[in-house]
Specification:
Structural class: alpha/beta
Largest sheet: 6 strands, parallel
Radius of gyration: 33 Å
Number of helices: 11
Order of helices and strands: HEHEHEHEHEHEHEHEHHEEEEEHE
Length: about 300
């Protein structure tokens, strides 16, 4: 605009290829081809005054424009290179992290639960196709990657092959199946947890390699029924689900008692026993714990970072 105004004020000293007077549109055209160094030459300065204006005013404006263009390009390329180096350094050191595929409301709740359980933010990697979700994850302190988690290249960028666990929370069940299949192929040992909308798709996720499948619709329905029939019991479940409460579920190993037998650690209430692939109510096998058993217990919340035996 600056160049167009300068040329328009001195339009009597310019001539176009047709020999006619310059309009303001002509001066805008001249400014654009001059600044971008296109220079068609159909409008040119013919008087000493306009040539001096081109030398003193228009040429510096052209140089400034080129500096801004080149500077912006170099800045973008430098930032991309810096991010590439940072990603490479991160990939070399990351190990046993948790990969969250999908940072919607469910993914955010999952990361909040992980943080409440003592997982450090740098131990969580988020993958999402939405730019705003990726920005929010980065602001929360997580490593955030924009891309489709069903693609091998994206999961490899997130170092899925070294992940300890993978949480899959897409909006579609077919996407969940594809992400689970890809993650399981790249990491046969990861613990994969998936949410599903339709109960009929639970077996598909299990066959795809998911260790745990959460049926969101059924879970919400059961909570609604529980809130109707036994509202006080729902408050206990709320405490278990709320990482900021004083009560939590945990998986522990039995400890040796005074007589050498295995027993439940003190200060906790056993609910179930995991014995191999079986789940046993604690009351049905109390007093007969075996080596290798795992206990599902309710206990007071421990400080962040405390570890289970």
């Amino acid at each position: 605009m600056f160049i167009a105004v300068v040329v328009y004020l001195g339009r009597d000293g310019y001539v176009d290829a047709e020999g006619g007077p310059l309009s303001f549109l002509d001066t805008l055209y001249y400014a654009s081809v001059t600044v971008t160094t296109t220079g068609y030459g159909d409008i040119s300065a013919v008087t000493p005054v306009t040539r001096l204006a081109a030398l003193v005013l228009i040429t510096p404006a052209r140089i400034l424009f080129l500096i801004l263009v080149v500077g912006t390009t170099v800045e973008i390329l430098t930032e991309q290179y810096r991010q590439l180096l940072a990603t490479r350094r991160w990939r070399r050191r990351v190990n046993d992290h948790t990969l969250v595929c999908g940072y919607g409301s469910t993914g955010r709740s999952a990361t909040a639960a992980l943080l409440a359980d003592g997982v450090a933010p740098d131990g969580i990697v988020v993958v999402d196709t939405n730019s705003l979700a990726v920005e929010e994850a980065a602001l929360a302190g997580f490593t955030a990657i924009k891309g489709d988690a069903s693609r091998v290249a994206v999961l490899e960028q997130a170092a899925v092959e070294r992940a300890d666990s993978v949480i899959v929370t897409p909006n579609r069940d077919d996407t969940a199946v594809l992400v689970t299949l890809t993650a399981r192929e790249l990491n046969p040992d990861a613990h994969i947890v998936v949410t599903v909308k339709e109960r009929e798709n639970v077996h598909l996720l299990e066959q795809s390699g998911a260790n745990s499948v959460i049926d969101r619709s059924a879970a919400v329905g059961r909570l609604l029924g529980l809130a109707t029939r036994t509202p006080r019991a729902l408050t206990v479940i709320d405490d278990l689900l709320d990482g900021r409460s004083s009560l939590e579920l945990a998986e522990l190993a039995p400890v040796s008692g005074p007589d050498g037998s295995l027993e439940v650690p003190s200060g906790v209430s056993a609910i179930e026993i995991i014995r191999g692939s079986e789940r046993l109510l604690y009351g049905s096998v109390a007093g007969s714990l075996q080596a290798g058993d795992r206990l599902i217990v309710a206990r007071p919340c421990e400080p962040a970072g405390a570890s289970d035996p």
